[in-house]
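#struct-help
A.M.: can someone run this one for me? Single chain, 186 residues.
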Amino acid sequence: MKLYIKYMVSTRCKMIVKEELKKLSLNYILVDLGVIDILENINIEQRMLLKAALLADGLELMDDKKSMLIEKIKNVIVEMVHYADEIPKFNFSNFLSEKLNYDYTYLANLFSEVQGTTIEKYIISHKIERIKELIIYDELNITEIAFKLNYSSVAHLSSQFKKVTGLSPTHFKRLKDKRRSPIEEI
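D.P.: on it. Structure tokens below:
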């Protein structure tokens, strides 16, 4: 039985969900970003207990099909931007359509309607947060970051970074108080 969870965007979230499932003696096949696959069917009482436990941890068990689809879109983006070694060089709209088995226009319209922003802007927000993270870690230079995140050039990365943050990547690197947003708040 598959269940979908809102705001489940990190390894820490997956650990929390696994712990809650364990407390309720629910056996799982898979716990991944935004989705869990439980071996058995759960009854209404177990579902309510799981829902309450997850809510206490800042997560939300979803029932609405459109909300589930929005979360799937977000999870594909988060996984691609934050957890892939390198963002693949492909047409993202085709990739998302194939991965979720929906027409991209439908996905884009639904996402914009529900989230109040476009998929493209959502991806850019995540890429900017990832750039901040990589700048803070100081393991890669801006050219390497641009390549890793599939920017056409350092100038394109810098322009987009400045448009979103108001700072150049170099200026951001010099700041002592580097402000980043948690993934779930983007």
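A.M.: thanks! The mean pLDDT is 89.
D.P.: also worth noting: The first strand starts at residue 2 and ends at 6.
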